[in-house]
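Please, structure for the following, as tokens.
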Amino acid sequence: MAGQATARRGAGQAKKSGPSGPRRPGAGRLRLRLPARRRLLLILATAVVLGAAVVWVLYGSTWLRVEQVETSGTEVLTPAEVEAAAAVPVGSPLVSVDTDAIEARLLRKLPRLDSVDVGRSWPHGITLDVTERKPVLLMKKGANFTEVDAKGVRFATVAKAPAHVPLLELNPDNSPSLRRFPSDALVREAVKVAGELPSAVARDTRLVRVTSYDAVSLELSRGRTVMWGSDEEGELKARTLVALMKAAPRARYFDVSAPTAPAASGS
């Protein structure tokens, strides 16, 4: 009896073990891992090939290279002047063009430009969108005129004065305020006053005279004079001047330096 039981147990173990003997741990997992690794290698190889193709298209091919430059926003300058100063590397890969360097070059070479926006126009173009400075005052320089913009920047010298831009006259030599307010500060003061003038008055203004920071006056057409004072309370002074001119249309002298107590005289 005992012998038969032992024989049966041996036969059962033989069935479980099978002809190849017991399985090695992890053998099934190894067979599953191998295809996954091959897929990963295939994906990596494909990514490398695609990356190389993209780099070649962007840098090595002739498909995406600079062929044209378009300029917009010019008024006094011409597109040809802007494009010459920009020196865009025509024929270079579009992706490699240094747009910041072109912008800096334009602002350095052309002081008339206030701002520049350089962009890529795929597949073959570079765009130059420029904004020119606007003169709000002119300063006499020999036989020529220096244009001054709304920021007080003296940006260009021209032989002919632009229409409807008043002349700036600085006479601060005897002013004790010159130590605190040098010439450049007085120019900014005049620019600010010019920017605060009502449009109708601005069109008639021929001269802005500055002797100190609080003594700005205007010479208008038809021999009229306005004492403006400093640039403080500019909006109130502008409204007061318009009302005063309506109330005294024949007056030749207007004082709004103290806008709560304006005065007009002469006829």
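Confidence is low (pLDDT under 50) at residues 10-20. The radius of gyration is 40 Å.
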